[in-house]
TrEMBL record:
<feature type="signal peptide">
    <location>
        <begin position="1"/>
        <end position="27"/>
    </location>
</feature>
<protein>
    <submittedName>
        <fullName>Spermidine/putrescine ABC transporter substrate-binding protein</fullName>
    </submittedName>
</protein>
<keyword id="KW-0732">Signal</keyword>
Length: 375
């Protein structure tokens, strides 16, 4: 299962949840810290220095496979296990906080960090707050996520101007792959069909989605959930573009000097004029009945410049972090690393993106999508 393939567990039933508890449950202890997160926070480059600073503490981090999977762990009773949870932006405000699975952060301690963040987070970032103004999560990694092209074959100008319609062009048949991150594919196919994936679709919208999905799958040359395989095919000339991808997937090839591998954010789209989608991770304090005093210490620790860099450049994919607005953080990236994450156009591309959100008609769309994929 791939890191950004969020949909795999969206439809988990309560019965399935009951079977999903891990074999080993960590006992709550004041001298231990348990973190449920996306990869990066669980690396030695991040955890090692924190363990060194707290030599008597037991610090564990488990990497999740999807946002819903991690959230469902808390719903199944694992609020007693975890102290911090790191998921993407819609969940804290829309589900975790209303369900009592997380609790507010200390504003006096954490609000000052927003002042040094990049402009889009400095305001500060709205989804980091509950309706009542409580601070419920700290943003860090983020990026636009739309599609990727080989600019030796398709110019940036052409790709940005055509946007998702590029993949409906008959001349593109057999020239592109699909990175099968299913939930993202559904979002992107909605946008390709001129639909808003984050609003319920009527019968006409469902039919449009079906036709779009059939055409996108029918015109593709290859399907893979492996971003390395997709980048390799792009570099080798097997394909000229791939549907679903972004800075997160293009950055490894770009850091290797293959800067013709370029993540594209459409110039325009069907939802408020926007056609791109951006993911932003938030790390929140789990509402553990026996909380670890190390939880907020760790959340402050990952704001340190050298740890921000370690989080952003972890596990073979590279991403910007919100703290790069701080000169002390920014100076740790060299020119090649900044180019790998397309820093020069990042702010503009983010301005053309919708916030990633929960797909409103997911249950119906995944059935249509899966049938088109099989065909």
């Amino acid at each position: 299962m791939t890191r950004r393939d969020f949909n795999k567990t969206v439809g988990l039933s309560v019965a399935a949840l009951a079977c999903g508890l891990p074999g080993k449950v960590f006992a709550a202890d004041k001298n231990e810290l348990n973190i449920l997160c996306w990869e990066g926070y669980n690396t030695d480059d991040v955890l090692g220095p924190f363990r060194k600073a707290h030599p008597k503490a037991t610090v564990r981090a488990e990497s999740g496979t999807s946002d819903p999977d991690m959230i469902n762990k808390l719903r199944a009773g694992e609020v007693k296990v975890w102290d911090l949870i790191n998921v993407n932006q819609p969940w804290a405000r829309n589900q975790l906080m209303p369900e009592g699975l997380i609790k507010p952060l200390d504003k006096a301690r954490f609000l000052p960090f927003f002042e040094k963040m990049s402009p889009e987070f400095k305001k500060p970032y709205p989804l980091a707050f509950a309706d009542n103004g409580n601070l419920i999560g700290m943003p860090q990694r983020y990026g636009p996520f739309s599609f990727v092209v080989n600019t030796d074959k398709i110019s940036r100008k052409t790709a940005e101007e055509q946007g998702w319609k590029l993949f409906l062009d008959p001349k593109m048949k057999g020239r592109y792959g699909i990175l099968t991150y299913d939930n993202w594919n559904i979002i992107h196919m909605c946008l390709t069909g001129g639909l808003n994936p984050f609003k319920p679709l009527d019968a006409a919208g469902m039919e449009t989605f079906k036709k779009t999905a059939i055409q996108i799958f029918g015109g593709s040359k290859m399907l893979s959930d492996d971003l390395v395989a997709m980048n390799t095919a792009l570099i080798n000339g097997e394909i000229d573009a791939y549907f679903t991808g972004g800075t997160y997937t293009a950055s490894p090839a770009r850091l290797d000097g293959l800067t013709n591998v370029l993540a594209i954010t459409p110039q325009s789209g069907p939802v408020d004029g926007k056609g791109g989608v951006a993911w932003i991770e938030l790390t929140s304090l789990v509402n553990n009945p026996t909380p670890s005093p190390l939880a907020e210490d760790f959340l402050e620790f990952v704001q340190k410049p050298e740890i921000c860099k370690a989080v952003g450049f972890a596990e073979g994919t590279y991403n910007p972090v919100s703290q790069m607005g701080n000169p002390e953080v920014f100076k740790l990236w060299n020119a090649e690393e900044l180019d790998a994450i397309q820093w020069g156009t990042l702010e503009e591309e983010m301005s053309r993106c919708l916030e990633y959100d929960v797909v409103a008609s997911y249950d119906e769309l995944i059935k249509i999508y899966s049938a088109a994929k099989r065909a």
